[in-house]
Design goal:
alpha/beta; globular; binds thymidine-5'-diphosphate
């Protein structure tokens, strides 16, 4: 049986993650792999709570917010990611624990401590594709698709800090891909970056 892969997509809002998840899923299915696409926050009980609270601008403490994201991830890993990997499938996730590091780090928690907590609880990804875009580019795309900047997560100063934390990460599984070209160009960049895995199979 083929070995399961967990490939996660990271980057600021508007970097184009969801488009690239779908493109890579199509490519890998064309190669005969069974692919699950998923995202965080999930549609589960904790993910729903995160969305509800972020819509209300509710005053959660940073620790409470972090705990909700971690609980959401615990369910995600237990119910979807680990079973799929055990079946030898490919899981493509739009966000995983490096979002926790970058976003809750930008909110004021210590990025290294958030990373350590997640690494202790959850499997490391096979590869984390960081789609690199500036805060201005990301916000421009969020607005172009009709999004509103009504959430603390999408204000420019905040996204600048998120992008800085992503830029400082130094992890063996992290692959940086510029997100500034067309969707086709970015997809081609992702395939090149994943070549070491794609060609060994
Ligand atoms: P997003 O992918 O933008 O969902 P939607 O498009 O449905 O709003 O995710 C919502 C926000 O959650 C995003 O701005 C990043 C944030 N987030 C964190 O702050 N920490 C995390 O651990 C994760 C997974 C997401």
């Amino acid at each position: 049986m083929k070995k399961g892969w967990l490939i996660v997509f990271e980057g600021i809002d508007g970097a184009g993650k969801s488009t690239q998840v779908e493109r890579l899923a199509g490519f890998l299915r064309g190669q005969g792999r069974v692919v699950q696409t998923t995202r965080e926050p999930t549609a589960g009980q904790y993910g729903a709570k995160i969305r509800q609270l972020s819509g209300e601008g509710a005053p959660l403490s940073l620790e409470e917010e972090l705990a909700l994201f971690v609980e959401d991830r615990r369910e995600h890993v237990r119910d979807l990611i680990e079973p799929a990997l055990a079946r030898g499938e490919v899981v493509l996730s739009d966000r995983y624990y490096l979002s926790n590091v970058a976003y809750q780090g930008a909110r004021g928690l210590e990025p290294g401590a958030i990373l350590a907590r997640n690494e202790a609880l959850f499997p490391a990804p096979t590869a984390a594709i960081l789609l690199e875009a500036s805060a201005q580019e990301g916000l421009g795309r969020v607005l172009a698709r009709g999004g509103e900047l009504n959430r603390a997560y999408e204000q420019e100063d905040f996204l600048v800090r998120v992008a800085e934390i992503y830029a400082e990460l130094d992890l063996p599984y992290l692959i940086r891909v510029p997100a500034t070209g067309s969707p086709e160009q970015v997809h081609a960049g992702i395939l090149r970056a994943l070549d070491p895995w794609l060609s060994q199979d």
